[in-house]
Amino acid sequence: MDKFTVWTVILSLAFGSFGLRFLFIGLIGDRTLPDWVMRHLRYTAVAILPGLVIPLVLWPAGTGGEPEPARMAAACVTFAVGYWRKSVLLAVIAGAITLYGGLYLLN
Amino acid sequence: MASTTPKIAFLRGFRDGSPFFLVLAPFAGLFGVVATEAGLNVFETLVFSIAVIAGTAQFAALQLMSENAPTAIVIASALAVNLRMAMYSASLAPHFAGAPLWQKALAAYATVDQSAALSLILYDQEPEMSRASKMAYFFGVISVAMPTWYCFTLIGALGGKAVPESWALDFALPITFLAMIGPMLRTPAHMAAAFVSVVGALAFGGIPFNMGLLIAAILAMLTGAQVELWLSKKVQADG
Question: Which residue of chain B has the CA closest to A82?
């Protein structure tokens, strides 16, 4: 990765993220946002992450883009545990165990 | 408790925020490892965590950068992930109104999922808290999370090169994202948004420059908001 790209991304995200955080606390004050804006903002993270992750699961980079059972199983277990237990940490642990167990059994 | 002093509020925030250490330390460490694997040096990785201080957006940016997505798309996608910070900012603003600007700026910098969520819950439960106590509680919550995020990013970045390829770290990011998605699906509206995001990303995957992901995300966001609206109207009609 070239240095110019890395620093452009870091600095843009730094200023952009601070801007989003400072927007109301510092600039607009206690004027409230219209309901419809808040309603859309509530779904931003859940709107982008599933779409970002699905190609990574179906065509993983580590296998050169070939679907692979251990990674697929780890993905399913991670998601299921996260949904079931509402805990990011437990989901990561369960997913890692499944991935390493699967890779060990399949190799 | 109307008698709560800022000092007590700070300690209370410190106590409530301490458990986040357990979640944030491994994530920060992972970011350090994955970032150095992707080609960033230790200094760039640490500055990334200090300047942006938003794990999900940092991971998303890293993933898109290693896919060689155009820089503008990397930035737009990561900021889209961070749009919820504007929502937190709007929710916190009335509680911080009247505070000195430097305090507001510091609080804005420290607005993350954990500090916003805990603080908003408490302000809701104890509306009689003074502004100073509210601010102190907020900084108490973040006083553990922030140093944890920096330190473990650094530890991960320094240790990253020692990780062997057999650890399949290429899949650390997908697992991190998937683990975050599960707990987000609290309502049918969130589930509908996630579903549209997945279908959209696959359907528009062929669009160049990773634009498909942004299109899918916009459609998913509109879906979530619309489903929420329908459901709340349905509850009113039923009730």
Answer: B182
Residue B137 lies in a domain: yes
Residues B104 and B196 in one domain: no
Q: Provide the ipTM.
A: 0.86
Q: Can you tell me the distance from the alpha carbon of B177 to that of B59, in angstroms, rounded to the nearest whole number?
A: 8
CB-neighbour burial class of residue B132 (10 A; exposed 0-12, middle 13-18, buried 19+): middle
CA distance B203 to chain A (A): 10
Amino acid at A67: P
Contacts of B223 in chain A (CB under 8 A): 43, 47
Question: Domain check: are B129 and B207 in the same one?
Answer: no
Cα–Cα dist B53/B95, whole Å: 22
Q: Best interface-test mutation with A: which of B138, B175, B185, B186 has the largest number of A CBs within 10 A?
A: B175
Domain, as residue range, for B155: 6-168
User: C-alpha angle B143/B6/B88, rounded to 5°?
Assistant: 55
> How many independent structural domains does chain B possess?
2
Q: Among A21-25, B131-135, B165-169, B218-222, which is the least confidently predicted range?
A: B165-169
Q: What is the pTM of this model?
A: 0.78
